[in-house]
Amino acid sequence: MADVEETLFPRRKERFEDRRKESDQRKLLDEFFDHATLGAVSRLVTQGQFEQMDYPISTGKEGGVFRATAPDGYRAVKVYRIGNAVFKRLPAHALEALKREASTSNYGRLVTAWTRREHTVLRRLFDAKVRCPQPYGYLRNVLVMDFIGTDGVAAPRLQTVQIEDPQGVHDDLVVQVRRMVNDARLVHGDLSEYNVLAHEGRPVLIDVAQAMEASHPQARALLERDIVNFVRFFRRLGVKTSLESFLAAVGPVQLGPKVV
Ligand SMILES: Nc1ncnc2c1ncn2[C@@H]1O[C@H](COP(=O)(O)OP(=O)(O)O)[C@@H](O)[C@H]1O
Ligand SMILES: [Mg+2]
Fold it and tell me: Ligand 1 mean position to 252 CA, how many Å?
């Protein structure tokens, strides 16, 4: 795999001249890029999805997000780790549902199902005009999407930026939530200032794999939890908001099991 690595990470050598950094980077690459994952990345390159991986934007227990370069700009490439780490934060019933949905309990296949789900959800949100990264494709545990950033620098999370117009961002999120529920018919399920990027003053929703159908019996509870996270965040910034007023601003939402 050394050759594939050289092709995929040509800048690695120049970037990490310092031996210690070189070995840290090597550890990171080894952790994420097992044989099969390298194979998937290399096939995505062959498909023309991108030309090379540049560097990690974020790494965690569940996986990492990397910047990649494509002929017409940058991409964000999310790599899920094969194993059970991806599902640790998922409630047991959701993992059971995924196992049924994917008809497997093999973690490799479940991670593929999870990656496919994130791709499908992004597609539905994007089509419903929710501001989120456009998905470009996936293979196994590797998802390719729009890189949210400016001049090659990834957009920061809402939580880390000085927000100039908190009321404006709050009201924009009301619109995103309305489109998500009523047009995409989905509830995000993990919304907070950590999964929203601040891009040119506007919020962009990310990290959507755990989204649920708006028709799910738990959808209202999940939506309310998402909104409560936003409300807490915006109140700290001086915005007068509450679960009730946020929901009222969203307007009538079609939630819960379909009545037939
Ligand atoms: N499309 C993207 N463009 C730019 N940065 C991104 C993109 N997607 C994710 N990131 C960065 O990677 C981090 C982790 O991504 P996320 O999807 O939230 O995964 P997780 O929280 O499961 O690790 C984000 O907080 C953000 O900084
Ligand atoms: Mg996240």
Answer: 30
> Domain boundary at 119, 150, 181, which?
150
Instruction: Assess whether the C-beta atom of 147 lies below 6 angstroms from ligand 1.
Output: yes
- pLDDT per residue as tens digits for the range 158-211: 999 999 999 999 999 999 999 999 999 999 999 999 999 999 999 999 999 999
Burial state string for 5-23 with b = 16 or more CB within 10 A and e = fewer than 16: beebbeebeeebeeeeeee
- Which residue, 150, 174, 209, sits at the end of a domain? 150
8 with 90, same domain: the answer is: yes
> Which residues neighbour ligand 2 (ion) by CB within 5 Å?
195, 207
Contact between residue 198 and residue 153 where contact means Cβ atoms under 8 Å apart: no
CB distance 206 to ligand 1 below 6 Å:
yes
Phi, psi of 212 (to 5 degrees): -125, 155
Decide if 81 is inside a domain.
Answer: yes
Residues that are catalytic: 190, 207
Strand segments (E) across 52-94: 52-59, 63-70, 73-80
The token duo for 148 is 């949210």
205: domain range?
Answer: 155-250
Query: Which sign, positive or negative, has the C-alpha torsion 177, 180, 186, 190?
Result: negative
Which tokens hold the place of 38? 């390298």
